[in-house]
Amino acid sequence: MSLAPRWTFVAIILAQIFWMSVLSTRVHEKSRCATKSACNEGGQGDFLQACVSNSEPFVFEVENEEDSEAFYFLNSVCPHLTKSRSPEICCDTTQLLQLKDQMATVRMLFRRCPSCLQNFESLWCNLLCHPDQSTFSNVTATVPYSSELKASSKWSDADGKWSEDSPPEYSESVDAVTIYLSRDYAHNLYRSCAHVKFIGASQEVISKMCFENPVDKCSPELFLNYIGTKKNKRSPSEFTFEIVEDNQRAKYAEKGIHPLDLDLFQCNARGYNNSEPCSCMDCPQSCKGPPRGPNPGAPLDSSNPPWRLLGIPGYVVVVAVLYITVSCIYIVVSYMHCLYYKKPDDEDQYVAAPNYNYHQQHSQYISKSTVQNCSSKNSMNSDGGGDGTNQTQGSGGGVVVVEVGVFEQIGRRFQSALHSFFFQWGLTMACQPVAALLFGSMVVAVCSNGLHYVRWTTDPVELWSSSGSEAYREMEHFNSHFGPFFRIEQIIVKLKRNATGAIRYEPDAYSERYRPKDMDPIMDAPILHQVLSLQENISNLTVYSTRHERNVTLSDICHKPMAPANDKCAIMSVTEWFQNSHETIDEKSYRTRRKRVINADHYKHIRACIESPTRLDDGTPLRTSCLASWGGIMEPLIVLGGFKEEEFEKATALVVTILVKNSLNSREREIAEDFEQSYLDLVRQFALDHPHLHVAYQAQRSIEDEIERASEGDVKTVICSYLIMFGYITCCLGKVGGCGMRTLVDMKITVGIGGVVIVMSSVACSIGVFGFIGVPATLIIMEVVPFLVLAVGVDNIFILVQCYQRYRPKDRNESLEVQIATVFSKVAPSMLLSSCAEALAFFLGAMTPMPAVRTFSLYAGMAVTFDFLFQITCFVGLLTLDAKRQKDARVDIACCVPVDNCEKSPRGQVGTVYSLFKNYYSPILFSDLVRPIVIVVFVGWFLACCCMMPHIPIGLDQSLSLPSDSYMRDYFTAISEDLNVGSPVYFVVKEPFPYEDPQQQKLVCGLAGCSADSIVQQISRAAKDKERTKIAKMPNSWLDDFLDWSDPESKCCRFDTTSDSGGRKFCNASVQSENCESCPIDGGKVQGEQFMDLLPYFLSDIPSIDCPKAGKAAYANGVSIKSVWTPPPLITSSTLVNGSQGSWSTKNLAYSADNLQYSSSSPPYSKTEEQSNKGEYKKRVVSSYFMTYHTALRTSADFTEALVESRALADRISESMGVEVYPYSVFYVFYEQYLSIVRDTVINMSVSLLSIFLVTFFLLGLDIVSALFVGVTILMIIVSMCGLMYLWDISLNAISLVNLVMAVGISVEFSAHTVRTFAVNPNPSRLQRAKDSLLEMGSSVLSGITLTKLGGILVLGFSNSELFRVFYFRMYLGIVIFGAAHGLAFLPVVLSYIGPLTKERKLRRTNRKCRGCTCSTGTQRSKGAQGQRNPRPGITDPHLPTPQQEDTHSLVYTKSLPEQSKQTTVVTSNAETSNSELSATILTTVSKNEQRLGKNSSFCEATSISKDKSQPIPDCIEPTVFSSNVIGQKSANENRSACNTETDAPIGDKNNEKDLFESGAMFSKASAPLKNSTSKSNHPRTANLDSSREETCA
Hints:
The protein has 49 helices and 33 strands.
């Protein structure tokens, strides 16, 4: 290559440099321009470049209409330049009108902040027109003047030649110019506009004007250079802004440069014409403090945080210290008491005699109280005794009357009637067992028929949200006005990584070389192509709906916001930045033709769209739009994931969201569900075909599908659990012993199976009954109710069967039916108590508003009721048949097969569990060493659980309800880790509001001049504190955009008044027609009827570059317009304002009956005179919403807190607006339950406990103390469950609340039986009564409910569902363990200390000095002091419920007193037989001191007295007692040898003692039954009635 071309090239460069220096502005001085007029198009369409002219400014004269329009604009934007009618300026009419057109779009963006807009317009006005233009401008590049414009130039003649007045510079136009600004001017301009929001995109406007830099990295220099560059397609020339620092002014002044430095308006200051300051959301300086109202998430007094010690809450420390102190004192006192006082004072002062009447067994013992007189034997036998109430001293003694209160009297009568009723009922069922079974079968058949009508619900809304709840009502309102929220189909794609974080993907060479360092490989072109291919496959998917016999595609069901202009589906994806085009993704731009240097590619396009997603030109040489193919805006916050803060470039996940139309119509929902199933299959296959990608996906139907799959997968586990429990029941009810064949006879497999069938039948009947009623059923019923009923039913079955097995009839001739009836009469009251308490507790629990809990309570209460009814009918009959089979020695199940040559199994034998309780557990538990420890441990655990209760987590992790292998688990994990924005939240103005009134608009909008407490302002302020409020961004305001859209200066609102149709035709921004004129807005602001006239056009207008504020995309469904009847007088703006807050009164408004939706195609409404007089229908905005987004919500606590904060914000907005505003998000209806779940739990538990207390109180004969013991024990079990929930990470939600309700019911079984047995036991010793109660009921409770459940519960621990493992295995295990611990350890020990007194011990105490003994017959008549005759022979207690019978017997007890004050207590006992009447009076005495010393007590003579004769009874009968504590053991042993052989068995026979004790009768080893001398009847219903009732099981 020769040197000539090189030198030629250098010469050209030097010539250009020289020419540029020559073209620069030569003179910089005041009153001199650098440019004038308009000369050239400059390659920017209709925008003209200025002419080069370094001359003096010209005088602007208004000569025509265009000049007038230009002058008006100049005066509005630069009033300081128009101090006269003919100002000297450097711009002409063409430039001013062009600037006005250029400012139209800017005005729409900055109109929200008048100060910013005026500063921005003032900048360009001064740059073009300021008379001192040359002092801050320097032309650096020019282009030749276009000849086509010479003829139209003001400085050319008619032939297109320059006039004589035209300066020579007019031969060139300005292509580049440098503008000098002072530092203060540049920064003040930037600050006034830095925070102005673009509502539609929920971001700052300036983010669109700062090249590719985020807002936080933007600066005045970047902002100014962007608005001056030609790349923005709005600037005809290249404007370069140079900011001059204050210390450089002198340097520039030497060249004549004086930077532009004018006063600008601060954003919080009023502008020209006293315009309003910018609002708080656009100008932080305008904010006047934090949002009003309390912060629901903060402590009441954050300045005084809760007191803590060593990180432990103070109240825990206080409770712990008090507990330790009291426990130590209690233990020390207890052991000292045991050391010095071997026996309590009141345990050895009682003696008793056997009583044949079970009804009056509470009268077997007489206390040391209520003895008013103590007489000698002679006075007792005389007729001159008193009546016992006012005995005279002279008589020397008398009979004492036992005083019984009203409650005791009613209670005795009720217990007597209850016992009689159940005996007769049991006898009837035992005599007719087949009829009982047939009756039960018929009931089951009828009720089970309702199973055909059961409606099973799996809808989460119906399951967890009450139809009367606030969230449900808000959802209904939202759906009725705006339609249901979309069905969401979402895919989250990211690269798989190994343990070290390295990706499992091999990028191509281009990606490795050109990918920016701060971008993740997920942005590589190959990945984008794969994601786009998946989207295309989904869009092209065709599914055949078998339910509706039609083909379905995505286009049929998707949301199309721009239809009908744009018929594409709304898909939110990164690929939409490339308009879903593979070619656009691969498109690149090179700096040279050799393609060595990449100038632009998809990476730069992504970065540009991240910075400004509303761009139609990404600013790169590619000139690619960022808008989606369907016309929407793809915000990076929604389509990207895995980034921190707002560093979108570092995103590691791509999010694809497909919006599908939702509908209240079931047919349309089913069609969408059919498509979603195929969509899921397609995405699942895509994930398998791309192993380097981690694909998390979901459809709207996914959760329901997976929950259903989890339920089906756990069927085997549940069945296995129930089979184990059923097997245990059938095996453990019988007993193994004797010869091998005898074992087959003694088994009770049939009874066990029958009991299980009864349990399942009760569940089926419950479901069937509510199926008839129409109450929907849930899966929780099948998971929980059988478990509950099995616990209740099996417990009662074990008690009844084992009581029968331990029962030993006193007469070998006693019929089997009477034995069954006798046992049943003793067990049934306890069964009634537990069943009634549980059923009532469940039915009252149905009052809760939570549907899942309410449904469970109804079904559980009904199932328990049916279970009790079947047990007292069918099971009694089944037990009778089985007893007959066993008596006839026939094999169980094969009942026709007899067993020969095998000895008969003895009756009255006890099981292994009973023996363990008797020989080991009971002695250890009731020892003096263990009892205090039990109290201390249980009370300490109770207090610890109380401290843990406030810290129980609330909510439900959705992933727990899914199978462990569910694809939804990956999706929930991806949401938690990768998504940075939550669900949309809508703040809905529920009531009609006068938006057309300018004064009322201020309570809504966020523009300048709007109220600081407007709905937009308050939401925007909340978004600034997103960590607390959970509001992610500013709201979209349809009112703000509508006011901007209707601005006459914009190109949005235009009408063609020359339409052929005769009316006016709307012209959107894309229509270029001279006939389209701007909307004539009265007063510059749309209002009144014009507001409602233009609003439909705004809602149907499609956004474009010339009209970005059009509302179809964002607000088409966000404004509900309906016909509202407006009666006269017409409401004016003056009547709409109510008080200082400007609230709107709707007293004169009502919705129309037709409720028609406004159509944008309908003509504007015009009223007639007649309608004005009579009232009229008017189209009004009856409801609208303002949408924003929640922050990323990852836990139940986040969701709940978001709901609380949103409602608090809505309440503040409602207060300021004067109308109801509520927040709505799709998840509110599910999480509202957690706002009140603590309150609901407390109420539910309280109501259940109260109902159990009342039932126990009444069924125990108005015994309030026993009822309190049952209630307190259940309360402690529930509190223990709460402690378990905290320790085992079980959250409080509807499922756990159902389990707690169930725990209340099961706890009744652990406590009520024991307390009732203790209460009806007449033994005066609390300790002995506690031992007896534990033996009689504890063994049945342990073998019946505890061991039965443990086997089945342990199986649940192996469930595939984590929901089962957490909420069923853990909680069920806790219920059984805590119930057994409290019922078998804590409750008996507490009863042994402070258990309720027997009925007789509640009476007044006698003088403890009474000694000696006298005897009296029961046939003597007591007389009063006045000699009145007692109408009832032998009855000294007028309150005792003695029936009016001919045969009345007296039982007289006497204690010796000093001669001057002897007292006698007489208690009446009644018995009835069919053939004879017998009255027995046994008089016994014992000395208190002799008992303590263990000496032999002297017993009185006993005489059996009939009506007309007396028969002596053995004089050495040992008193019937419950414990050797009542009578000294030594004394009892000495008296055994004194008995004769007329009793059933020798007293000293240990085997007989064991049989008697273990047979269920309430006798101790020191007792022996009195020989029954009453004649017996052979009739099965009456034979040995009295003797059979002598035994007591419960």
